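REVIEWER CHECKLIST
Item 1: Sequence provided? yes
Item 2: Single chain? yes
Item 3: Sequence as submitted:
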Amino acid sequence: MTEDQNDVEQLCRDFRRMFQALRDQIGKVIVGHAGIVDDVLITLFAGGNVLLEGVPGLGKTLLVRTLSAALSLEFRRIQFTPDLMPADIVGTNIVMEDQATGRRQFEFQRGPIFAQIILADEINRATPKTQSAMLEAMQEHSVTSGGTIYQLPEPFIVLATQNPIEQEGTYPLPEAQLDRFFFKILVPYSSREELGTILDRTTAGHDPTAEPVVSGRQILDAQKLVQRVVVASHVQDYAIRLVLATHPGGQFAIDTVNRYVRFGSSPRGVQAVVLAAKVRAMLDERYHVSFDDVSASALPALRHRVLLNFEGQAEGIDNDDIVNEIIQQTSTTVEKSASV
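Item 4: Structure as written out by the authors:
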């Protein structure tokens, strides 16, 4: 075994220990939802943003606050409401007077977006105009005001919560903003046993808290390590075909897609699938991506990037069912037309 291989294996072991340390800290506070916690951590180490959807009271906000407590990063919470304005998020230029000279000039006052972990709480209760203020920050990690570009601190991640759009006082997120979320994670109700544990922790005087175990520098280094994980050409082609299968009328589209889907995933979808698969491979003590890594990452990466047509909406078609059917019907066999 070469020295480089030894170094890589040690880096992978360090990554798994760091991932497990975060799991353990979050587990002190959050009961159950192990898969959801893993998906949030996968997004963090892949460098993306997370959208958590569920009815009020399921612990979405608590999960984000617990994650921030386990990380040595600056945390800000933005409560989205119908009267929230874009300047309340990114900041604004205000007139300031120099005490020495008496001259007045514009000075940029930074908004709460200038942090490393942003909790966008109930993001779909703000108007589309306000929601659009997040677009540049989520993609370019920067903010533009008065013609000046301000860089956000790194690492930077937005963890947004939203209520199901059928609830009162909610606005659907614009498609462009949905596409900027790496994963969309659905938060279900807790089980009978989990509810019992929640009651034991919250009604008996216990107050568990998470402690910081990972720094920003460690996260940035881990994100670079994830990029180095190997993806064989035939495995990458499988991820590509999964995403192309979401495009109605395309070469790989299945019948259900052609009938019910209006628009399929953008290239960000396949980027999310592959990066998440790389993290899963490292967690499984492998430095190469498998077909199972890709298929396991497809649902949270694609469910919000499949837009139904009128017929699909009228018949109440579930995006998850469509993505799962695509996974089942897309062969792992290399296509003849693929460049491999």
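Item 5: Key structural point noted by reviewer: The domain at 230-334 is CATH 1.10.8.80 (Helicase, Ruva Protein; domain 3).
Item 6: Recommendation: ____
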